[in-house]
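Why does residue order matter? Because the sequence determines the fold. Keep that principle in mind as you read this record.
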Amino acid sequence: MANHHEHVISLAQQNGLIRSRDLEAQGVPRVALTRLVRLGQLVRIGRGLYGSPDRQASEHGALAEVARKYPQSIICLLSALRVHNLTTQAPFEVWLGIPNKARAPNVDYPPLRIIRFSDSSLKNGIEEHVIDGVAVRVTNIAKTVTDCFKFRNKIGLDVALEALQEAWAGKHVTMDELWHYAAQSRVANVMRPYMESLR
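Structure:
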């Protein structure tokens, strides 16, 4: 059992957060997690999610928690804008992209705003950021901006325009990148007048 404990603590320190189901796959019984929490060597972050007690969570800590629990999901829209520092909005929900036919994650915390994407949208324009020691998949800046126009009915046109202006003014995107993702998301006609005004 001592070997299990050392292994789990080592994993928590390396990965930032660990899932109980990942440990079970490695032959570590769940009782080891319970004992480590009782001993103060691990803390329970949420259902099935554990971390080191000295773990320092950043302002994007909730994104790391969601990404650790659902590694195939993608941080998108308002949450991605926050990661890229392109908005003054402070969403209380984590905006999470999942496949069209996937079952929506069911978590107590943090609150999620689920956006369904096609398979190609989940593969193109995705970056990996390390947040609190966890690999987090986030839409890149150009894709995030065009997604804001695609989902403008959910987030508001004003947010999409702010994202476009901030990304362009900060030289974070090129016109070619924006056109590429606008065409892919079928919002080129919607974005055209706004993009032409940037030139």
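The mean pLDDT is 85.
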